[in-house]
User: Fold Delta-aminolevulinic acid dehydratase from Pelotomaculum propionicicum.
Amino acid sequence: MSFPVQRPRRLRSNENIRRLVRETSLSVDNLIYPVFVGHGSGLARPVEAMPGVYCFSIDKLLEHLEEAVKLNIPGILPFGVPAYKDETGSEAYDDKGIIQEAVRAVKRAYPELLVITDLCLCEYTSHGHCGVIEDGYVLNDPTLDLLARTAVSHASAGADIIAPSDMMDGRVGAIRGALDKNGFINVPIMSYSAKYASAYYGPFREAAGSAPQFGDRKSYQMDPANADEALREVWLDIDEGADIIMVKPALAYMDIIRRVKDEVNCPLAAYNVSGEYSMVKAAAQNGWVDEKRIVMESLTGIKRAGADIIITYHALDAARWLK
Assistant:
């Protein structure tokens, strides 16, 4: 039966009707707030490529997070800017490293705030790659030992969830084994399962100082042309013990989010990454888009695609608008 009997506009005629039939609901409960933290005190260094984003010293981070807690954002994803870098990224697994110190401070100040620690070596290595290098190539298996050591260090500091983002084969199993062996059987793993070798990470690399010093990451991050491979990666991570899986980036990969959600009965996160954030900010600053409307539309689209959890630099603004 078609027009004029069927008139879809009847259910769009006013806001309360639209609310009743709305299919997708975005909530502050879906948001995770990524932040940058470095050594020192009294510091809030603006990230030039990410308007409104700062790299904080721990004391300033605690002040900044007060609003996130008041807005009831469930958790944060801190990225460390280390004091030193070396070939094996040793500050990543140093018990006095920046992330370990930040986790302890945040959990003391805000015990109920989830702290999800990104687990990778790229910010900490002198070469900017995510693992041990030999003859210009990232070695998979030796890197697993360092990742497992880092995971235990994060959990010991009080991290609530460990989030490996390195894309080494077998890393979820290695991390799960190390956590269990050291008594952290209840610490979940949120794995960057389908992480693509994307151009959308550019602003993040400025913020974290993590750009590769040679080559690229295409030998371990996924080809943006591939979709079936994402499902293979997801299933491998689940088989190795991942509790939550992730697709990264989000906006150019909503087909991947949907395919993963349709196939896998597992909580799914999507990372609305730095390039996606900065493009919106730049357009809004030029008056080309309505920032609030486009942010909320983008986040709703990510949720509609199937994400249960959205990691986004827009989290504070989105939480205010939702409130």
Notes: The chain has eleven helices and twelve strands.
